[in-house]
Write a structure and sequence with these properties.
This protein has two domains: 1-53, no CATH class; 54-184, E3 ubiquitin-protein ligase SopA (Pectate Lyase C-like, 3 Solenoid), CATH 2.160.20. Helices cover 3% and strands 5% of the residues. The chain has one helix and four strands, in the order E-E-E-E-H.
């Protein structure tokens, strides 16, 4: 495969390009330069880059619901509220992603990096967030009933009016977390 390590691909038109096995370590990309729905697997890290031309990540991910997208880098300022029930995003980088109102019931988000994520009014009942990094995430009004948050890092997270009944908080870091009117 092509060696595109560290390449700046922001203004490249790569539609139709055969990139199977390409080395994309550290490559800078703009999702608008990739054909919608294209998947490229990094041969070194095993990371899957799910490309979109949409600013609605949730809609694009809903097409991949129940598929394993572990280790994918899907971070950015995306918006959406599509159903993502049972989606597998373990160990995924989702920094600053906007999942406002997303339906992530029973989602596998173990070890996911959700720093700064916006999960306002997200439905996360029964979701596995064990070991996830949710530093400074906004989980206001999120439904986390029965969710596994064991060992998660919620330092500085906002949980106002969140529903936590039955959630596993064993070993969870809640330092500087805002828990006003949280339902337990």
């Amino acid at each position: 495969g092509a060696d595109l390590k560290g390449a700046d691909l922001r203004d490249c038109n790569l539609s139709g390009a055969m990139l199977e096995g390409a080395n994309l370590d550290g490559a800078i990309r703009s999702d608008t330069s990739w054909k919608r729905g294209t998947e490229i697997k990094n041969r070194h890290t095993g990371a899957v880059i799910l490309t979109t031309q949409s600013d609605n990540l949730a809609d694009d991910l809903s097409q991949a619901a129940n598929r394993n997208l572990s280790h994918a880098d899907l971070g950015g300022e995306h918006r959406g509220s599509a159903p993502l029930v049972n989606v597998k995003l373990a160990n995924t980088a989702l920094c600053d992603v906007d999942f406002t109102g997303a339906k992530l019931t029973c989602a596998d988000l173990r070890g996911a990096d959700l720093r700064g994520a916006i999960l306002v009014r997200a439905a996360l009942e029964g979701a596995n967030l064990s070991g996830a990094c949710l530093r400074s995430a906004d989980l206001s009004e999120a439904d986390l009933r029965g969710a596994d948050l064991s060992g998660a890092d919620l330092d500085g997270a906002r949980l106002e009016n969140a529903k936590l009944r039955g959630a596993d908080l064993a070993g969870t870091n809640l330092r500087a977390a805002c828990l006003n009117r949280t339902q337990r």
